[in-house]
Hints:
The chain has six helices and 13 strands. It has helices at 33-43, 57-66, 85-92, 116-126, 191-200, 221-234; strands at residues 2-7, 27-28, 31-32, 48-53, 74-78, 103-107, 110-112, 130-135, 142-145, 151-154, 165-175, 205-209, 215-217. α3 packs across α5 (191-200).
Amino acid sequence: MKAMILAAGRGTRLKPLTDNVPKALVEVGGISMLEIVIRRLIRAGADSLVINVHHLHHKILAFLAEKKYFGLPIDISPEIYFPLETGGGLKKAACFFDDGKPFFMHNSDVFTDMDLSALYDAHVASGALATLAVKKRPSTRQLLFDDGLNLKGRLEQGADSGALTPLAFSGVQVLSPDIFEKMTESGVFSITDVYLRLAAEGGKITGFRNDACYWQDIGSMEKLESVRSHVEASRQ
């Protein structure tokens, strides 16, 4: 099973910490976020990885070499001049996914204990183009799902969700390689925008609810400290 880890972000909201450390190598409980995500994907069955890089990419390469690539074949997808965002980054790495099988894509700045194997199994059972881990939590970017957890749109600010359920995307997903032939976007773009377009065109994009799990991104110093506190408390 293959997987992509998104690690090209600059981490501007974590400055000055990320002036000298790429966001993916920020540590939680003495372990970098990148290592945490890699080990969780391995436990879920991933045996081959591609990682996109940009900011301080040489430090990520040195880290992987130091860790002997965790015993896996790991490809690097460099985004030299600027980050391509989640969709552009995936499209640039499309040639990596040549085995015809569904694959994981996981943000490197997301800390969660969700059941990744269950997410993968749900995707395979659904026959969807993509299955998104979603959670009932506060977010300014809520997606809307019907009773069957089919993606139907985005909740606009101040709008009523009606009969649809607003849920927040967790930055973890399983995709079928068929999605590449449907990605007409180019350059810098968000994978979420691809999902919304495909869903509007009748494509099957589904959600996988993970309400009971712990989830937090490290997008700000406050959020990072929240994750660190959670990990410290879980060790006691």
